[in-house]
Amino acid sequence: MGLQKEKDMAGAKTKVKAKLAFTTIIQHWVPPIITVALGLIAGISLAAYNSDLSTNRFFLEKQTRTADNVAVEFSRYIENWARLVRLRKQFDTRNNEPSAEEKEFFKRAVFERADARDKLFSSFDSTHLYYSKRITDLVVRFREWDDKQSELTIEKLPNIEEWRKWQVDILRQLHEEISK
After folding, report:
1. Whose CA is closest to 112, among 149, 79, 160?
2. Cα–Cα distance for residue pair 38/133, rounded to 1 Å
3. What is the chain's pLDDT, residue by residue, as a tens digit (180 residues)?
4. How far is it, in rounded angstroms, from Cα 74 to Cα 121?
5. Helix, strand or coil, per DSSP, at residue 110
6. Rounded CA gap, 138 and 37, in Å?
7. DSSP code of 156?
8. What are the tens digits of pLDDT across the range 44-70?
9. What is the largest CA-CA distance in the chain?
10. Residue 41 phi/psi, 5° resolution?
């Protein structure tokens, strides 16, 4: 019986040691494992959030740059149109032929208007990448309207204020979309 008791006690000691080892493992290893797992989940979530934030910031910067380009090029285009119309009307009211220098200045004004138009329309093309269909439809309508004006003679052209109305409308729409 004594031997049996010793065996039982040895078995109990082994069970206690196993429980103690298991308890030690749980106490010392589970909290760091949980911390690592939570840190990993938080890190992945934060990275995904930052990626979305970065994409939105990039998109907003592109919209803003496009709007700035449209504003600058629209102003250049309208001012060149106004200069061209003014020069042509001055030439038409004169009795004598314009000088070679005046003709050269007029040709340069025509070139500058065409160049400003090309740059404006190039800026408009970017709106198709970064703005809604509502904005791009407005831009397309302006381009169609402007194409029709380009075919008219000076006497039949609308007042330069018509171009300015288009400019204000388009820039307001761009601003509203950026501000959303």
Report:
1. 79
2. 43
3. 555 666 565 555 666 565 655 666 666 665 666 665 555 565 555 555 555 555 578 888 999 999 999 999 999 999 999 998 898 888 888 888 888 898 898 899 989 999 999 999 999 999 999 999 999 999 999 999 999 998 888 888 899 999 999 999 999 999 999 988
4. 9
5. helix
6. 52
7. G
8. 555 555 555 555 788 889 999 999 999
9. 141
10. -65, -45
Question: N- to C-terminal Cα distance for the chain?
Answer: 87
Q: How many helices (H) and strands (E) does the chain have?
A: 4, 0
Altogether, the residues listed in the chain come to a count of: 180
Cα dihedral value 109, 110, 111, 116, nearest 10: 80
**Radius of gyration of the CA atoms of the chain, in A:** 38
Q: Cβ(142)–Cβ(164) under 8 Å? A: no
| 174: amino acid identity, one letter | L
